[in-house]
Design a protein that fits this description.
Elements (H helix, E strand, L loop, with lengths): L5 E3 L6 H9 L7 E3 L13 H15 L5 E7 L2 H13 L5 E7 L3 H18 L6 E5 L6 H11 L5 E5 L7 H12 L3 E4 L1
Parallel strand pairs: 1-2, 2-3, 3-4, 4-5, 5-6, 6-7
Length: about 190
């Protein structure tokens, strides 16, 4: 298993097992994909603790990671560990976040914090971000993020939230597409 470069989990496997595989991978992993049905992981016992361990294993054992998807809780500890991951994993090109523990009243606060961490700690290699489970960024916070991203390579952003199809968001997104900040926003 020491030459493992791609870990693609298409079926249910608990995060503890995935963390053990990462621990024993030898540090060569370039891609970790949990698939897009991350909801299965939220039912795991002690998910809070297990998911923090998973994030730590990634930045401790996979500093060369280029493509990563994982399930993410919006707790203070998860934000801290996520920022450490971004600071260590400077080869990261593609990031997929399946986010839980959000409600409409928390979305703006969580979104603002997440975008600040991305600006502060993501490397210029990051070219693609996918957000799932309806994370929503306020128009103001999204504009701040995109303005702060200016000068970096163009970013592709993928989301399943219909709010980004409304007129105000489309206008903002098109502005930053025309400026070369966004490659695509789907």
């Amino acid at each position: 298993m020491y030459d493992l470069e791609i870990l693609d989990i298409d079926y249910y496997i608990n995060l503890s097992t995935v963390s053990s595989i990462i621990e024993d991978s030898g540090g060569y992993l370039r891609e970790i994909s949990l698939g897009y049905d991350g909801d299965l992981y939220f039912y795991e016992d002690n998910f809070d603790k297990v998911s923090l361990t998973f994030i730590r294993k990634i930045y401790e054992k996979c500093s060369l990671i280029e493509r990563l998807s994982f399930v993410y809780l919006s707790s203070k500890e998860h934000f801290t560990e996520f920022e450490k991951l971004l600071q260590v994993c400077q080869n990261l090109k593609s990031l997929t976040l399946i986010i839980s523990n959000t409600s409409n009243k928390d979305d703006e606060k969580i979104g603002k914090k997440l975008l600040k961490i991305l600006i502060r700690s993501a490397s210029t290699n990051l070219r693609e971000i996918k957000f799932f489970d309806d994370i929503q960024f306020s128009l103001k916070n999204l504009e701040k993020f995109l303005e702060s991203w200016r000068g970096r390579p163009a970013l592709s952003i993928y989301t399943n939230n219909a709010i980004y199809k409304t007129d105000d968001y489309i206008k903002l997104i098109n502005k930053y597409k025309n400026d070369g900040v966004i490659k695509e926003f789907v």
